Design the sequence.
């Protein structure tokens, strides 16, 4: 009833490609190949973790407290229970409950939902891998990430060197470990140790032309500086390590650096692909950190600050072993390993602004 796109030139209109992916798959064989590779990458992740003794689990998508990340949630209502619920923004706190319960190696690959903007590496719903291993720390997780990503590159692309635009990204381990403070100082000239509170760092950010909000928490300001001065330069795979406590309410304090935590983020092609830390397992410290987040929301109007999950705190009080946790954005990882420059090219049905599609026979009736 409708003609297919002309096969010789393919389907090139970007809006049509994303809105009518079925036509894109018919007209452009290379698009279908990207999604075949995506499937192979996800299968490879499962195989890698299963071989290391992890078990795959499922945790709730509808949750009473949207905690475990800095993000605004989507809100819904459960009619039978007459309760407000949220789409999960992370799987972290439920997976750590399982660590408390004695499942020492767990992971989940699933959709999470964050009510935020859309750009070349953000979509409101995305696929996230989270894994937790008892008696591990962020150093062992770093080694696992290097091994996982390099093995996926070798399996999917036949090489640990992958083309991304005009860059060749080399995933061969080991990846450099870069101190967050030292790298930010080197790139911006700012030593964040000289700015111990939000007010002083806000003034400095204004001097740098970063246009901070009138009230913005210190951790948010540091994150903004990283986005401007550091992240765009992390083209080759690298670990940025040892984050300020202000930025990491769920991470364990660094034993040798007061005010810092054992956390890393992995970057490649100027984009974050993984986040990890040695998990905080002291319930009293965690309770205080949650309180700080609530204060951050009230004092600075930060709607993305983390939220207190009282049931999770109760679970911690029964005893949580030292744990190494990891989160990897599957969509961004697929972008890197398939050489795609936008997240929409690795999502079969990316989020788009809604348009009204009118059947051809109804057009004249609507326009008369």
Sequence:
């Amino acid at each position: 009833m409708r003609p297919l796109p002309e096969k010789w030139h393919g389907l090139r209109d970007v809006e049509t490609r994303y809105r009518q992916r079925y036509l894109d798959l018919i007209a452009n064989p290379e698009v279908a190949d990207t999604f075949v590779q995506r499937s192979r990458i996800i299968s490879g992740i499962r195989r890698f973790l299963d071989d290391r003794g992890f078990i795959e689990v499922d945790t709730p998508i509808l949750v009473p407290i949207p905690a475990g990340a800095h993000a605004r949630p989507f809100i819904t209502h459960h009619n039978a229970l007459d309760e407000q619920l949220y789409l999960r923004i992370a799987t972290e706190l439920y997976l750590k409950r399982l660590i408390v319960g004695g499942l020492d190696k767990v992971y989940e690959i699933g959709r999470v939902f964050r009510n935020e903007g859309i750009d070349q590496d953000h979509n409101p719903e995305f696929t996230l891998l989270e894994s937790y291993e008892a008696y591990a720390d962020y150093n062992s997780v770093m080694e696992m990430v290097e091994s996982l990503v390099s093995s996926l590159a070798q399996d999917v692309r036949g090489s640990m060197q992958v083309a991304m635009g005009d860059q060749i990204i080399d995933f061969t381990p080991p990846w450099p470990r870069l101190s967050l403070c030292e790298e930010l100082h080197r790139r911006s000239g700012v030593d964040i140790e000289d700015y111990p509170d939000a007010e002083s760092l806000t003034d400095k950010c204004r001097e740098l032309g970063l246009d901070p909000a009138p009230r913005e928490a210190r951790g948010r300001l540091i994150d903004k500086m990283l986005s401007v001065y550091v992240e765009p330069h992390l083209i080759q795979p690298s670990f940025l390590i040892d984050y300020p406590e202000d930025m990491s309410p769920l991470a364990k304090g660094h034993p040798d650096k007061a005010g810092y935590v054992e956390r890393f983020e992995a970057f490649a092609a100027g984009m974050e692909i993984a986040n990890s830390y040695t998990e905080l397992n002291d319930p009293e410290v965690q309770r205080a950190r949650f309180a700080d987040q609530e204060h951050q929301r009230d004092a600075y109007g930060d709607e993305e600050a983390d939220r207190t999950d009282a049931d999770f705190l109760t679970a911690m009080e029964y005893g949580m072993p030292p744990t190494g946790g990891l989160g990897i954005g599957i969509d961004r990882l697929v972008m890197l390993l398939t050489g795609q420059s936008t997240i929409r090219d690795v999502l079969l049905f990316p989020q788009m602004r809604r348009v009204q599609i009118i059947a051809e026979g109804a057009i004249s009736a609507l326009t008369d």
User: Anything to note?
Assistant: The longest helix spans residues 29-51.
